[in-house]
Design a protein that fits this description.
By secondary structure, this protein is of the alpha+beta class. It is built from six helices and seven strands; from the N terminus they run αβββββββααααα. The chain has two domains: 24-88, SH3 type barrels (Roll), CATH 2.30.30; 100-170, no CATH class. The strands form two sheets. A five-stranded antiparallel β-sheet has the order 6-5-4-1-7, with no helix packed on it. The model has no long low-confidence stretch (mean pLDDT 76).
């Protein structure tokens, strides 16, 4: 009797794995502003239609700064939309330390994991082929502010300093 149950369970697992492989990883989103739907992942491609803000979309794949989508309206429209115009829906927020406290904790002497974000529009290939622009790095060095100049600037703005412990910052 138990052998039949195990065999049936094995068949169901194999069948479900085939369904998983066949089904695309579809995510759901909403347009944050009116957007043009293009035939290809390029602004030079044919504009198919204009979509409205708050239109619900199914998102199938990403190509650089573009998402391939299908609208939920009848009849549905399919094409490519700039990824900055879409907000994912139904995605739960990450758990853990987020917000200003987590940002400020990165400048303390604590040794915690560092929070980071992805860069929209770059894929693994772009990041692997990226090269540092040392002229831009040198330009960043010109924006360095000394503590004395920061204090002087704060006083000119009527700001006052307040010492805080790490526990106060985390709240």
């Amino acid at each position: 009797m138990h052998t039949n149950h195990y065999f049936l369970l094995l068949i169901l697992l194999i069948f479900s794995s085939f369904l998983t492989l066949a089904a695309p990883d579809v995510k759901h989103g909403k347009l944050v502003k009116a957007s043009t739907l293009f035939s290809q992942a390029s602004k030079q491609s044919k504009a198919l239609t204009q979509l409205n803000a708050d239109d619900a979309v199914a998102i199938y794949q990403r190509k650089r700064v573009w998402y391939q989508i299908t609208t939920q309206e009848k009849p549905p429209h399919s094409g490519w939309v700039n990824m900055l115009n879409i907000r994912f829906v139904g995605v739960s927020k990450r758990q853990g330390e987020l917000g200003v406290a987590a940002l400020l904790s990165s400048i303390s002497n604590d040794t915690r994991a560092t929070s980071s974000t992805g860069i929209r529009g770059f894929d693994e290939k772009d990041l692997a082929n990226a090269k540092a622009n040392m002229q831009q790095v040198a330009l960043l060095d010109t924006y360095v502010v000394t503590q004395d100049s920061a204090i002087k600037f704060a006083k000119q703005g009527g700001l006052a300093t307040k010492k805080m412990s790490n526990e106060q910052v985390k709240k």
